[in-house]
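Private note to self, pasted from the team thread so I don't lose it. Backbone tokens:
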């Protein structure tokens, strides 16, 4: 590889020093009187060793690359001391040698000993989330504050890493590569020239200039990845202050190449909140990010060429070019506008002014929109139920319905729509940046002002019009041209016609978009909403009609509002909960139109918004809804269907509103039947929130204080857990604790209540023979056996309709809820006649809404749908696919200790150590957060909250299952150290 020798920077790339360990030991002993163990740690240009002396004190020994001048090393030392004296984070300081010197000359090199800063470098983490990147931004602002006032003659040195010199470095080293990489450098350089031209407006300060994942450590007590210390003052220089945050952003992007803009903005926000940047600095941020990434990439190539044995440099080449490539995928004007929006500035000043300027210039409507009606095609549109967004006929009907008879329908600007297609790992572009005019093919489209047809291709036309000093770029898509590219056109000229619908699902229309820059896409990601709508402002003026969509509330604002009124024990999933707007089949859509595979909603058993359930509810609501003291057919019909699914003898049905009510009532039935009070439940159980069911709760998550609060009449049986239990898979030995409880209850046991598949433990299959032995013991002692099938029943386990069937037992009382109403509040208790009769002798039973006509019609529709859609079979088939996938992942990722469950009630048990089976609880939560980024909703469960519970709607298909598996595979892979 050729290194250009005529540049000031080419000579900087000298090979790393290579002193032998013996030499290092000698230097340490002679100059610092330190004797210790050595460990070589990587360096891009120097040679570094970790040193631990006999007292356990740790240091870093640095052998400087010969290109560093003494004065520069001295400057670095002084900068460290200055920082350490002022900083609120950890930073190293030089350790004086025996003679007091901070730099010693040994074996032909300048050598320094520095104090060690505890913590794990951020580069050792794989993927990290936005809070960490905001904290990195904050750290770079804090480091600049700590260096404020630092003076040294070498602060103004020539440095390859000084961002002001980006163009020179790229010019000097660009020849090292050719083809696509060369073009990447060219585009980054072009962006940089805008900053360089404006550089005079940028404040200059002494900065660290290398606050990167490599030089930042996270102490053990900080949250995962949160930075606590800063190392390596080798690049300290006086330069543009804003460069610090750009450098930090580039290093962060390497951890999430899918989202360079999101990561960079998080770093920027963190910095700006800590230390406000000026508008020119904010404008410079994105170009400096591009320039820094380009300099890193080409410098890595250069360093790897001169130090071929330096593995670190080799890896940097791959990583740094990947970052540059990812950045190149972001539209540059968007990067700038989004940076401005993140810092509270108008995203694009030209864009903001465009509508007004066009109006003043006498802009005429491009189509005849008299009487036009703006219609709702948003995520939450009433007109788009049952997946209409991916069905051309349903969309055409929704457009026709919305428009009415005498007006053209207009699709709104700034609307968030659902993009057809299954959930993916990246959020789709769902924000509509223009407006749609739905009109017959062939409808004329006219120039709003005098202008030039800039281009036309593939049904997309760009028109440029002048409005005062500003150029408006008008994007038309789905059109056939009436004029050619390059033509000058006058206001009112026909320039194009609506094309017949050839692509996409919407009926014929023209998409009209006003843009502050050419080449922008028609849809953007809602996360950059302000930036996109700043660049593509309201096009109402081009259509002569108001086409603005209502601005959605942000999920953050919705959450604040909730917190003011919803009582706080009602917790939310996730750190930053998405606002859910729509559900369809096994997919949930948030307010950004982001689809997620829903692996948590066992309640929506037949799928979200199942048409048959909607129809049954609607029909019955229009007809009659009253209470069960009236005679109506739906209640009997539903009770017959339900008891028909249960073994003979279980044929008396009570209808209630929830699982808690069902189990609560079952306990009362058992007590009435046996005349006893004591109840036995499994350790770790959850059966509901009523007083009687809460008494049985011994789950540390749902009831942390259960041990101290346990009522005398409640007994706890050992969990028959073959994975963590004492007796492995020997069910009869666990049943011994049931026998013990039967003996311990002074007046005998009324009931034993349990989930026949341990749902709250994440679908743990009970040890073999446990339920048979336990039920025998309970019955022998005169008690009754209650099966809580609220979570695990109703076809979910695949092989059978009820989970107890797997255990070869028949309960005396069965409780169901959740799935039975597919989300409508409905629960049921089914028991033997003599149990119901015993209760009847004590009191009547009545629930105002339990078993209402509407509930029962819904209950019947759910059972019909389970049958008609073959959902129990799908639970078996797709459940098998998922289980096989989890088991395959377990062979690659030791964090998976076991896979539990049956059918579509599965649990992925996460452990820190496969031998000790220590639960990996914090990891489980972090994995769930990451899965959500990747379009999957999963939550932890289990006594330690370390088991990923997988209980999706039973209609989940193979694609949904594969997306879940792919996202989990990626998440687990990302947790491995990056370098
Ligand atoms: N039993 C079990 C096993 C449950 O998991 C739950 C709820 N998670 C309940 C009962 C209570 O049901 P609900 O929330 O409908 O009151």
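Design output:
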């Amino acid at each position: 590889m050729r290194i250009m020798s005529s540049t000031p920077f080419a000579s900087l790339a000298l090979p790393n020093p290579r002193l032998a360990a013996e030499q290092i030991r000698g230097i340490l002993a002679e100059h610092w009187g330190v004797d210790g163990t050595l460990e070589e740690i990587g360096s891009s240009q120097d040679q570094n060793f970790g040193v631990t002396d006999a007292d356990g004190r740790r240091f870093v020994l640095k052998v400087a690359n010969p290109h560093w001048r003494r004065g520069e090393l001295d400057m670095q030392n002084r900068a460290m001391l200055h920082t350490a004296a002022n900083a609120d984070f950890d930073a190293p300081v030089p350790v004086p040698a025996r003679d007091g010197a901070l730099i010693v000359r040994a074996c032909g090199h300048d050598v320094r000993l520095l104090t060690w800063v505890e913590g794990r470098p951020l580069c050792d983490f794989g993927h990290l989330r936005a809070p960490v990147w905001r904290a990195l931004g904050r750290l770079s602002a804090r480091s600049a504050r700590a260096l404020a006032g630092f003076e040294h003659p070498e602060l103004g040195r020539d440095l390859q890493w000084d961002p002001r010199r980006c163009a020179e470095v790229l010019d000097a080293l660009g020849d090292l590569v050719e083809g696509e990489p060369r073009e990447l450098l060219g585009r980054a350089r072009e962006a940089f020239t805008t900053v360089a031209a404006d550089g005079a407006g940028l404040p200059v300060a002494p900065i660290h200039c290398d606050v990167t994942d490599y030089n930042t450590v996270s102490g053990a007590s900080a949250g995962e990845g949160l930075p606590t210390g800063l190392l390596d003052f080798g690049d300290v220089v006086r330069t543009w202050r804003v460069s610090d945050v750009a450098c930090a952003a580039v290093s962060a992007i390497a951890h999430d190449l899918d989202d360079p803009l999101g990561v960079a903005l998080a770093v920027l926000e963190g910095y700006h909140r800590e230390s406000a940047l000026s508008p020119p600095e904010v404008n410079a941020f994105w170009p400096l990010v591009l320039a820094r990434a380009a300099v890193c990439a080409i410098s890595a190539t250069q360093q790897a060429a001169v130090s071929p044995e330096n593995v670190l440099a080799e890896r940097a080449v791959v990583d740094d070019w990947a970052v540059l490539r990812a950045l190149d995928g972001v539209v540059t004007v968007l990067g700038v506008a989004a940076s401005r929006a993140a810092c509270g500035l108008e995203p694009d000043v030209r864009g903001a002014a465009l509508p007004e300027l066009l109006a003043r210039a006498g802009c005429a409507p491009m189509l005849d929109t008299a009487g036009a009606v703006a219609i709702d095609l948003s995520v939450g549109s009433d007109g788009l139920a049952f997946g209409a967004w991916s069905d051309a006929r349903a969309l055409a009907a929704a457009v026709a319905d919305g428009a009415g008879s005498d007006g053209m329908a207009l699709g709104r600007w700034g609307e968030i729509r659902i993009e057809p297609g299954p959930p993916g790992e990246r959020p789709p572009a769902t924000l509509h940046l223009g407006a749609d005019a739905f009109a017959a093919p062939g409808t004329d489209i006219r120039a709003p002002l005098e202008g030039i047809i800039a281009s036309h291709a593939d049904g997309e036309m760009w028109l440029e019009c002048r409005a005062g000093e500003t150029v408006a770029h008008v994007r038309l898509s789905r059109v056939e041209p009436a004029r050619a590219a390059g033509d000058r056109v006058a206001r009112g000229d026909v320039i194009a016609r609506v094309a017949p619908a050839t692509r996409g699902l919407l009926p014929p229309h023209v998409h009209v978009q006003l843009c502050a820059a050419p080449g922008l896409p028609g849809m953007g990601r809602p996360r950059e909403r302000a930036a996109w709508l700043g660049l593509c402002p309201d096009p109402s003026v081009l259509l002569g009609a108001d086409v603005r969509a209502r601005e959605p509330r942000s999920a953050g604002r919705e959450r604040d509002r909730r917190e003011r009124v919803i009582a706080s024990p009602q917790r939310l999933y996730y750190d930053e909960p998405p606002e859910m707007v729509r559900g369809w089949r096994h997919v949930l859509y948030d307010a950004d139109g982001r689809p997620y595979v829903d692996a948590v909603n066992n309640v929506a058993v037949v799928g979200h918004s199942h048409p048959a359930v909607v129809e049954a509810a609607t029909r019955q609501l229009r007809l009659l809804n009253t209470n069960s003291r009236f005679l109506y057919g739906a209640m009997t019909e539903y009770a017959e269907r339900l008891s028909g699914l249960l073994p003979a003898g279980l044929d008396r049905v009570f209808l209630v509103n929830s699982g808690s009510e069902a189990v609560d009532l079952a306990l009362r039935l058992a007590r009435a039947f046996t005349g006893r009070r004591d109840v036995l439940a499994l350790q770790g159980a959850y059966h509901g929130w009523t007083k009687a069911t809460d008494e049985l709760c011994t789950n540390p998550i749902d009831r942390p204080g259960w041990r101290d609060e346990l009522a005398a009449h409640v007994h706890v049986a050992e969990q028959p857990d073959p994975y963590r239990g004492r007796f492995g898979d020997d069910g009869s030995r666990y049943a011994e604790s049931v026998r013990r409880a039967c003996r311990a209850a002074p007046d005998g046991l009324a009931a034993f209540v349990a989930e026949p598949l341990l749902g709250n433990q994440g679908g743990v299959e009970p040890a073999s023979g446990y339920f048979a032995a336990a039920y025998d013991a309970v019955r022998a002692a005169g008690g009754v056996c209650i099966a809580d099938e609220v979570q695990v029943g109703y076809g979910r386990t695949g092989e059978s309709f009820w989970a107890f069937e797997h255990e070869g037992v028949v309960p005396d009382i069965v409780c169901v809820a959740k799935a039975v109403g597919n989300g409508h509040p409905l629960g049921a208790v089914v028991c033997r006649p003599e149990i119901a009769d015993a209760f009847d002798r004590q009191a009547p039973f009545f629930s105002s809404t339990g078993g209402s006509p509407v509930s029962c019609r819904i209950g019947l529709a759910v059972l019909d749908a389970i049958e008609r859609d073959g959902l129990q079979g799908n639970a078996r088939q797709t459940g098998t696919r998922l289980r096989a996938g989890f088991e395959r992942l377990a062979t690659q990722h030791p964090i998976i200790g076991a896979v539990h469950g049956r059918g579509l009630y599965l649990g992925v048990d996460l452990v820190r150590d496969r031998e000790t089976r220590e639960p990996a609880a914090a990891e489980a939560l972090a994995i769930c957060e990451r899965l959500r980024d990747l379009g999957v909703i999963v939550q932890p469960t289990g006594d330690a909250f370390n088991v990923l519970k997988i209980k999706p709607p039973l209609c989940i298909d193979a694609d949904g299952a594969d997306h879940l598996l792919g996202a989990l595979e990626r998440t687990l892979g990302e947790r491995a150290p990056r370098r």
